[in-house]
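quick q for whoever's on today - can somebody do inverse folding on this one?? i tried earlier but teh output was garbage lol. tokens:
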């Protein structure tokens, strides 16, 4: 599918041009009003609906080296943070164009690399002032936040709501629904078994407080911090620490007077991090509540630190069903074959024994290093040769082991032999494959089972017990998609697992719904982990833009002085070049943030063109510079929202506009990954394309077309 077309000059830096062209197709994914894209295969004529850069690049056939690097950068950001890919893709395109513009102006490549890195580091340090500690978000006086002056945390003045107040009314209605987390009610029609039904609690016991999450989180990180941080065996994503400078600004909650925050406080934080996707964030809130409830039930009177564990949350997509069936369930929900429905009905309402297999459950699977030779066959002495196939003999042997230890449920992390599944089904035994490692670990902890590599290793000590298997009762039988299977719920007492069941009538949108859920989950996870958030809605990017313009003006004065003394100090060519070209590079770098804000505001459907949005940004930028303190100007504009001065057409509805926050580390890392990729391609182009000879950048005889 032809998605973009750009004229390329083959004697210029092809890599930068390809980066900017590829990134251009993701501009519509930025901002609250996103535009989906259909990617069509010209050969098979199959289409895929994508709403994120990661899914878009997955659907494209990127054969170039630059395309592969871009795909790897987005995939790394997505796998680590599950958010920030839109920002990453946009800045890759904006800063590749900025670097290309610097080359066109004759700036040396070494200067571009040095000044761009310097500018980004300076902005990363500057935006620390817009970090808000969680324990200061909802204090006694909502207008006073320590370290940030007197202002109200509200929606960014750069992202005001359109004149249509329907969105505002929906957000106002959502505030009432957020109260549901104060009661142990999970959306849906699931009726858990009586052994797992929580006992009645008082109203005070049903409140999960924001202060509890903060205090427990700090206690958990201080007690569980790993000493060995540079080992490939012991260092994990959970031990990842944010930028050190940001940690210096975190106030310890223990230094202030303890205060109990209601569950509505966590709801306000979740709404601010939802960025308009309230349905997904509401499911995340319910998952947090279920984890907290499970932790309280296991601890009893002894209070241990509670930590939102995103690795113990899973999703199960049910395409073709109404969205009203979407809910959060304690336990593990997965899809099994429709043929297993009769077996599950026989197994339900009774505890069964389980075996956990970490590998494939097939006849030809062997641990790496112990693979059989292809020309050697193993023959059992007790059977006649060629009587049964090797797989038949193997399946019968495995079935006898399961019968011997009275095992009726097998969970395997890999693939499972179809023949074994059929034999186990006839023997009233359920076998489920492709189970996540975290699910296996949770069942091992709750049931006492030991994870094994081979079924032949099973003995009495390795078998777990107390698992209940039921058909997920929220799915009407008349609307079940036969080819996708049926949903089955696995539960056991004390298991630390939560499954978000995502339903939707449009099958093409299921991947998008799942991605949106995980984005909201990880935003909340990093906010609670770092104990601080950014003011959202473009405030951070606006501060970066104004800060770069200020240091650009300062560099202009320093550059003029350096230029006058250049002839008298010819030995310091690099220092003189830095001083001479720094304003130019900083201006090009700042243009990336200006484009970001313009696109972001344009995608709010508040302006008819990006030119108007750009003029709006420039107007506020000039006012911020003239004020002498861009930070104070930003905070002042936030406070004006409550008075209705900034946006008079929704002044009577401003109380219903939720706060907007951003996760800190994913945003900062998206900036760094974007600049790292641009500078990598820039320097690679310099070595491969230009070589040692000086190439004129305005060549007109070597042009071509790049189709995406």
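ok took a stab at it. sequence:
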């Amino acid at each position: 599918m032809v998605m973009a077309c750009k004229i390329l000059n083959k004697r210029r830096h092809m890599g930068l041009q390809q980066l900017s062209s590829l990134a251009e197709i993701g501009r519509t994914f930025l901002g609250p009003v996103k535009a989906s894209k259909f990617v069509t295969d010209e050969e098979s004529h199959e289409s895929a609906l994508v709403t994120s850069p990661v899914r878009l690049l997955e659907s494209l056939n990127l054969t170039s080296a630059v395309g592969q690097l871009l795909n790897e950068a987005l995939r790394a950001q997505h796998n680590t943070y599950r958010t920030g890919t839109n920002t990453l893709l946009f800045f890759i395109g904006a800063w590749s164009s900025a670097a290309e513009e610097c080359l066109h102006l004759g700036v040396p490549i070494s200067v571009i690399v040095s000044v761009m890195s310097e500018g980004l580091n300076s902005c990363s340090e500057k935006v620390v002032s817009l970090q808000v500690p969680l324990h200061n978000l909802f204090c006694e006086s909502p207008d006073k936040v320590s370290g940030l002056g007197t202002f109200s945390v509200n929606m960014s003045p750069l992202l005001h709501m359109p004149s249509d107040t329907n969105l505002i009314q929906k957000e106002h209605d959502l505030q009432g629904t957020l109260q549901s987390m104060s009661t142990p009610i999970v959306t849906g029609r699931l009726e858990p078994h009586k052994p797992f039904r929580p006992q009645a609690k008082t109203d005070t016991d049903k409140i999960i407080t924001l202060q509890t999450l903060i205090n427990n989180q700090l206690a958990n990180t201080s007690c569980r911090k790993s000493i060995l941080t540079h080992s490939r065996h012991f260092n994990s994503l959970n031990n990842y620490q944010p930028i050190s400078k940001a940690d210096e600004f975190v106030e310890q909650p223990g230094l202030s007077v303890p205060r109990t925050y209601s569950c509505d406080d966590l709801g306000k934080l979740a709404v601010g991090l939802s960025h308009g996707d309230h349905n997904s964030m509401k499911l995340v809130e319910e998952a947090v509540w279920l984890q907290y409830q499970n932790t309280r039930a296991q601890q009893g009177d002894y209070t241990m630190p509670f930590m939102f564990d995103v690795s113990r949350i899973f999703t199960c997509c049910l395409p073709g069903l109404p969205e009203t069936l979407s809910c959060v369930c304690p336990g593990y929900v997965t899809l099994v074959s429709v043929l297993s429905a009769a077996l599950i009905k026989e197994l339900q309402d009774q505890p069964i024994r389980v075996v956990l297999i970490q590998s494939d459950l097939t006849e030809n699977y062997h641990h790496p290093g112990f693979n059989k030779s292809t020309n050697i066959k193993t023959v059992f002495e007790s059977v006649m040769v060629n009587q049964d196939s090797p797989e038949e003999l193997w399946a019968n042997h495995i079935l006898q082991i399961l019968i011997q230890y009275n095992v009726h449920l097998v969970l395997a992390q890999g693939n499972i032999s179809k023949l074994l599944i059929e034999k186990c089904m006839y023997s009233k035994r359920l076998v489920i494959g492709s189970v996540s490692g975290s699910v296996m670990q949770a069942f091992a902890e709750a049931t006492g089972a030991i994870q094994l590599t081979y079924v032949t290793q099973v003995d009495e000590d390795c078998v777990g017990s107390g698992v209940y298997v039921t058909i997920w009762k929220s799915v009407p039988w008349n609307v079940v998609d036969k080819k996708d299977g049926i949903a089955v719920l696995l539960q056991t007492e004390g298991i630390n697992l939560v499954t978000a069941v995502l339903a939707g009538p449009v099958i093409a949108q299921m991947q998008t719904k799942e991605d949106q859920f995980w984005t909201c989950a990880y935003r909340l996870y990093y906010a609670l982990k770092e104990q601080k958030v950014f003011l959202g809605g473009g405030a951070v990017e606006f501060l970066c833009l104004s800060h770069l313009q200020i240091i650009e003006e300062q560099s202009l004065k320093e550059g003029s002085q350096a230029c006058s003394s250049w002839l008298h100090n010819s030995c310091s060519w690099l220092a003189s070049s830095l001083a001479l070209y720094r304003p130019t590079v900083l201006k090009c770098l700042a243009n990336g943030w200006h484009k970001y804000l313009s696109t972001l505001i344009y995608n709010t459907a508040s302006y008819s063109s990006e030119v108007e949005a750009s003029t709006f940004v420039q107007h506020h930028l000039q006012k911020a510079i003239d004020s002498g303190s861009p930070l104070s100007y930003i905070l002042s504009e936030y406070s004006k929202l409550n008075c209705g001065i900034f946006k008079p057409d929704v002044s009577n509805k401003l109380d219903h506009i939720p706060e907007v926050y951003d996760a800190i580390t994913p945003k900062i890392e998206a900036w760094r990954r974007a600049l790292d990729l641009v500078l990598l391609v820039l320097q690679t182009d310099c070595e491969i394309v230009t070589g040692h000879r000086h190439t004129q950048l305005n060549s007109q005889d070597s042009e071509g077309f790049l189709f995406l």
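fwiw The mean pLDDT is 75. also The first helix runs from residue 14 to 24. so keep that in mind when u check it
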